[in-house]
Amino acid sequence: MISDAFEPYLLRTFISVCQHGSLSGAAQQAGRAQSALSTQIRRLEELLGQRLLRRTGRGVVPTTEGELLLTYATRILALGETVAARLKERTVMGNVRVGLSEDVAVSALPAALGRLRRACPHVHLEVVVDHGDALAERWNDGELDVAIGVSSSFNADPVHAWNVELYWVCAIDEQIDAALPLDVIVYAEPCAWRRLMFDALLNAGRDFRVTVTSPNIGVITAAVESGLGVALLPAENIRPETMRIISLAESDGPILSVNYGLYAVPRQSDSIRAAVELLTESFHAMTQPLR
């Protein structure tokens, strides 16, 4: 008999909470209320008769029993996706050339590509990660079948488009002195986020100085966590246990956002259509604003 504890939605919630290290972080990514996720975790603990998470000063971590479940939960979900793929009437095969903008490539999209690989094991993925303008050039040169990047860089109509809201963030224990120039952490040019940040600060008459410049969002998030300055980040990249959202230039103005698009070649094989479907689903989840 299959245990009710192994309902996929309960396992996905548990894995997400463990990955984020907090219920709030998992709730933000899912675009759901924290109380709903807390109820699911309690339900899972009741079904298994074990305490799965324990609180720390910086969030939650799995207990010994939780670590064991985390290992098996990941395998259970991956196996379910594999079985579903094998039961399809027709095997999806072929090559898909996917281009991802670097600023979104480290978030929800790798998970989508992983699901595509498990669901369609005969699809060969060629993934390229680059900054927006270079990615658009690859697209224009016919080097990609699917691309996700800043819409302003592309001279084409996207299959889907989304606004990604950006938030001013600093280290969780950093204090901002309004009397001093603001230390900012920015992407290397060319970058829509960088231009958006500078325009907002200039319009607000806020003095600032660049402390860290990097083309890598991993470096930028690490710099924020280390207290080296303030950055603009989407909800997906904000870690509540090490960062906090602050109000700066946009406090009396509109929310800052960047429009992204998913681009796909007009003539699509089954493998390209599968990639578009999973990437669309994951990118839409990534763009949910904080509540």
From TrEMBL:
Per UniProt, which keywords does this protein have? DNA-binding, Transcription, Transcription regulation
Q: Which domain of life is it from?
A: Bacteria
Q: Which Gene3D superfamilies does this chain map to?
A: Periplasmic binding protein-like II (3.40.190.10), Winged helix-like DNA-binding domain superfamily/Winged helix DNA-binding domain (1.10.10.10)
A GO term for molecular function:
DNA binding
Instruction: Give the SUPFAM superfamilies listed for this entry.
Output: Periplasmic binding protein-like II, Winged helix' DNA-binding domain
- Transmembrane spans: none
Q: Which residues form the HTH lysR-type domain?
A: 6-63
One short Pfam family name for this protein? Answer: HTH_1
Entry's family note = Belongs to the LysR transcriptional regulatory family.
What is the protein name given in its UniProt record?
LysR family transcriptional regulator
Q: Which organism is it from?
A: Pseudomonas yamanorum
* Taxonomic lineage of the native organism: Bacteria, Pseudomonadati, Pseudomonadota, Gammaproteobacteria, Pseudomonadales
